[in-house]
Amino acid sequence: MVGVVDVGGGMRAVYGAGVFDYCLDRGIRFDYGIGVSAGGANIISYLAGQRGRNYRFYTEYSLRKEYMGVGRFLKTGNYIDLDYIYGTLTNSDGEDPLDYDAVMNSDIDMCIVATDAESGEAVYYAKKDYKRDDYGMIKGSCCVPIADRPYRYRGRLLYDGGLSDPIPLEKALAEGCDRVVVILTRPRDYAERETLISFLIRKKYPKAAKGLSMRAKRYNAQLALCKRYESEGRVLIVAPDDIGRVRMLSKNRNAGKYLYEKGYRDAEAISRFLKRGRGRK
């Protein structure tokens, strides 16, 4: 079984959008997908077969004041308006609706990783947990600490999945994948550094704050595991050699286009990886 993991990374996830559009153009099919943060949004549009949809979110809609910005933060306490992105735009009556029926009819399974803000533990939402026009698990998975308040969904307060499981390769293996494509949105040799801002949420959500402070250590350890499995031929790491001017909360159409096109080109390695795997059978 072939899996794909997209680690997200805010606006840097436009790189993964390019990877998945290449896969749709070439008819590349995965059996299982795991998305973290914006990586989940990339994967669900891939399951829907909606080529170019995520690119529009990163390079067009993100420029709107309704999407994210200081004004929204001052008004609501949330820099990123997750309800606008994964509700107003995404719902059946939205401007750019997700093809929910295509997602549910796809024989590709998936899950999305979020973090319980109160326990600090990873929460995995399977495709069966989705309901039409109810995309709270993506909202929670994309909820960046400090920038946004935790997102309340089905009795939980959720933060970004990257706090608890930034590169969920082990989850993919546990689900039965024997080969996995891992999409990073930093160069493959980039080492995360410990953040010093976890104190901003420590009082209300101490366990989530601990996860934020440990994120670098977890990411670096999981990346080392990916590289080990890559040396054995079980994993392919697809990562940009540089990210240009794209940052987590960037609002730059041309920078996004640059990173998207890089992802599209780099995805060619997936075709070769899958062919090698078939040759070993």
TrEMBL record:
UniProt motif GXSXG: location: 35-39
GO BP terms, alphabetized: lipid catabolic process
Active site: S37, D160
Stored Pfam families: DUF6363, Patatin
Domain of life of the source: Bacteria
GO molecular function terms listed in the Swiss-Prot or TrEMBL record: hydrolase activity
Motif mapping: DGA/G: 160-162
Keywords: Hydrolase, Lipid degradation, Lipid metabolism
Protein name: Phospholipase
Transferase recorded as keyword: no
Ranges of residues in domain PNPLA: 4-173
